UniProtKB/TrEMBL annotation:
Gene3D superfamilies in the cross-refs: Ribonuclease H-like superfamily/Ribonuclease H
Annotated residues for binding of a divalent metal cation: 27-28, 119
Note on how the cofactor is bound: Manganese or magnesium. Binds 1 divalent metal ion per monomer in the absence of substrate. May bind a second metal ion after substrate binding.
Species lineage: Bacteria, Bacillati, Actinomycetota, Actinomycetes, Kitasatosporales
Subcellular location: Cytoplasm
Family the UniProt entry places it in: Belongs to the RNase HII family.
PANTHER family registered for this protein in UniProt: RIBONUCLEASE H2 SUBUNIT A (PTHR10954), RIBONUCLEASE HII (PTHR10954:SF18)
Function description: Endonuclease that specifically degrades the RNA of RNA-DNA hybrids.
Catalytic activity: Endonucleolytic cleavage to 5'-phosphomonoester
Record's keyword terms, sorted: Cytoplasm, Endonuclease, Hydrolase, Manganese, Metal-binding, Nuclease
Source organism per UniProt: Streptomyces johnsoniae
Protein known as: Ribonuclease HII
Length: 234
């Protein structure tokens, strides 16, 4: 399927309107998985011509994606990865976990960027970062596309490394996402320590429902009700 190559248009705009010298592209992977961390990559590319075939990681075959990631890690000016664990996702909620992972990636760069181009329409980073959000930035912006490929390949490798520990779940083929094999394994064996146990998939597993943790939203609601009770509101 043909696609347009990403450009430096957004980065040039950010530089021109904010005076930023160092601009990082940021993208995440693993948001919708049931197991494993959420992973964020921050990549700085400058304004050089990107490697041929660069685009959103989801548009690439696994083989092409892996080969391109190897090229990109040597081509980018700098890059860093940040992760938020399943435990942190359960405790904080996804938005805060994304911010945690992104901050870890950005703060691990050799030099702090002056501005950040963030894939999507929602700024989950906020202050003090100078953020420009770009819908489908992983297709249109060179730095974000590079970050998407590096993040995807690294997270897939991390989940593949977990596969021998719990082979029933086929993490090496589904990367923690809800494939048929993954769903069947959950129904039979329940969640592992790598699963996000506050997520709704456990509602459909009566045998394992007792292992579900309250979501961050549920915990906040319970805390509000407790505070209201202490104040005599009901």
């Amino acid at each position: 399927m043909p696609y347009e190559s990403p450009t430096h248009r957004v980065e040039r705009s950010v530089r021109a309107t904010t005076g930023a010298r160092l601009v990082a592209g940021v993208d995440e992977v693993g948001r919708g998985a049931w197991a494993g961390p959420v992973t964020v990559c921050a990549a700085v590319t400058g304004l050089r011509r990107p490697p041929e075939g660069l685009t959103d990681s989801k548009l690439l075959t696994p083989l092409r994606r892996t080969a391109l990631a190897e090229v990109l890690t040597g081509w980018v000016t700098s890059h860093a990865l940040g992760h938020a664990s399943p435990e942190e996702i359960d405790a904080l909620g996804m938005t805060a976990a994304l911010r945690l992972a992104a901050c870890r990636a950005l703060e691990a760069l050799p030099e702090r960027p002056d501005a950040v181009i963030l894939d999507g329409k929602h700024d989950y980073l906020g202050k003090p970062w100078n953020v420009r959000t770009v819908i489908k930035g992983d297709q249109s912006c060179v730095a974000v596309a590079a970050a998407s490929v590096i993040a995807k390949v690294r997270r897939d490798a991390m989940l593949a490394e977990l596969a021998p520990e719990c082979p029933q779940y086929a993490f090496d083929s589904n990367a923690g996402y809800p494939s048929p094999i993954h769903k069947s394994a959950l129904a039979e064996h329940g969640p592992t320590r790598h699963h996000r146990r506050s997520w709704a998939y456990l509602d459909a597993l009566p045998r394992w429902r007792h292992l579900k943790l309250p979501s961050h939203r549920d915990a906040l609601a319970a805390e509000s009700l407790e505070d209201a009770g202490q104040l005599g509101m009901f």
